[in-house]
Design a protein that fits this description.
The protein is α+β, with helices and mostly antiparallel strands and 154 residues long. It is 21% helix and 44% strand. The protein has helices at 10-18, 23-26, 37-46, 101-110, and strands at 2-3, 28-30, 51-60, 63-72, 75-82, 87-93, 115-124, 127-136, 139-145. Strands 1, 2, 3, 4, 5, 6, 7, 8 and 9 form a nine-stranded mixed sheet that branches. A hairpin with a 2-residue loop joins strand 3 (51-60) and strand 4. The two termini are 25 Å apart.
Length: 154
């Protein structure tokens, strides 16, 4: 199976996971100095070695959400926060080989010979999910799995 790494499509992923399709139109890039101090502090404490690439703000379910996009080595990470610094979701690129064996097995069985265009680990409310963008049979598709390899519908 071929593996490709691509830039995270964070706003699209948040819209899918949150069911908020309007979030795409509301996201605004902002200066990272405009991010609340509590958000910046929480990010720096959780990811002290990460280099911040950019910041954004959007309204999700009526609340302002701040996102910090970063890179740490080979890992691209997007973290969304409430204004008080509470983490909402962490999305990070991962190597396909680092996902749990049941997840790898499901992907390989369902998409033999497919190309993994994107592999991400998503942590929301303590729940870990794995999302893959796969090119198989000339089609692009996405699949979200829990650590046991069970498909999760966005």
């Amino acid at each position: 199976m071929k593996i490709h790494r691509h830039k995270l499509t964070t706003s699209g992923l948040l819209a899918i996971l949150a069911g908020a399709t309007s979030a795409l139109a509301q996201e605004q890039k902002i200066s990272c100095t405009a991010v609340p101090a509590a958000v910046r502090t929480a990010f720096e404490k959780a990811f002290p070695k990460a280099k911040i690439r950019h910041c954004s703000r959007e309204v999700e379910k009526g609340k302002t959400v701040y996102e910090i996009a970063s890179v740490e080595g080979e890992t691209r990470r997007d973290v969304s926060f409430h204004a008080d610094g509470t983490v909402i979701v962490v999305e990070e690129t991962i190597a396909f080989g680092s996902v749990p064996e049941p997840v790898r097995r499901v992907v390989n069985d369902r998409y033999p010979g497919g190309e993994i265009m994107r592999a991400e680990k998503i942590i929301r409310d303590g729940t870990v999910l794995y999302e893959f963008g796969i090119k198989h049979g000339g089609k692009h598709m996405e699949i979200v799995l829990d650590p046991g390899g069970n498909e999760v519908k966005p």
